[in-house]
Amino acid sequence: MLTRRVIVCLDVGDGRVVKGTQFVALRDVGDPAELAAHYEREGADELVFLDISASSDGRATLLDTVRRTAERLFIPLTVGGGVRSADDVARVLRAGADKVAINSAAVARPEVLTESAEQFGAQCVVASIDARREGNRWVVWTHGARTRTDLDAVAWAEECVARGAGEILLTSIEQDGARTGYDLALTRAVADAVPVPVIASGGAGVPAHLVTALIEGGADAALVAGIVHDGLFSVAQCKSALREAGLATRAAA
Fold it and tell me: Would the pTM of this model clear 0.70, i.e. be above it?
């Protein structure tokens, strides 16, 4: 039986993990390396490290912070933010990442997905998509949800996969930090459209939300941040909820 993953997201700004609502009103929640090690002990299946201001600031990923975080982990680490080329992907992988998430740069030049997949394999390339609902569709936004594009999120997910992405990290901008549940319609639309794993992101408030994202939303993994950073629920409680719903999970170490 396919195991479902619980992934903890570390949004990193100026070398510290931060959390907000709809990508704003950020507050400091801790050191990325220390938090990463803590969540691994709790049973997280993977970690996502997003340098949230790299693209909007026009700078490279904070590789020293990535390296310090990766050194503490045995579970897979995905790193994103400020990745603009296959050379950048190589640098992030050398710093200890297992996968690299690409968002704004892929929209600007989709060939970066193909070039990266050809050099390092599709399993290393994650297309990160931030989407906001407009009427009966979802529109892609870039640069930390600051810049609107004309791209339809579902069609863009399909193109990302066609160009080499091996996974989709899908975030609902409206649901981010709201803790009222994932955007199930968005998640289901993308999951039905692509043949690669989809990570649901944005909106987890209770462990039951992860269950609905995986069952009703069709996601392969659910990403959490605020509810575990603030101590409302543990990773172990989230995984227990999945098992109680009949979903297979990886056993904690």
Answer: yes
Choose the weakest-confidence range: 22-36, 96-110, 133-147, 177-191: 22-36
List 33's β-bridge partners, or say none.
none
81 vs 43: CA distance, rounded Å? 25
54: three-class secondary structure by DSSP: helix
Lowest mean per-residue pLDDT among 6-15, 89-98, 109-118, 164-173: 6-15
Q: Which residues contact 109 (CB under 8 A, 6 or more apart)?
A: none
Q: What pLDDT is attached to residue 129?
A: 98
DSSP letter at 72 equals T
SS3 content of the chain, % helix, strand, coil (to 5): 35, 30, 35
The single-letter DSSP state of residue 81 is: S
Domain 5-244 fold? TIM Barrel (3.20.20)
Domain spans of the chain, in order of start: 5-244
Q: Is 102 exposed, middle or buried (0-12, 13-18, 19+ CB in 10 A)?
A: buried
Active-site option among 130, 176, 183, 220: 130
Residue 130 designated active-site? yes
Q: Which of 35-39, 133-137, 141-145 has the lowest mean pLDDT?
A: 141-145
How many angstroms separate the most distant Cα atoms in the chain?
44
Residue 17's closest CA among 42, 43, 38, 45? 38
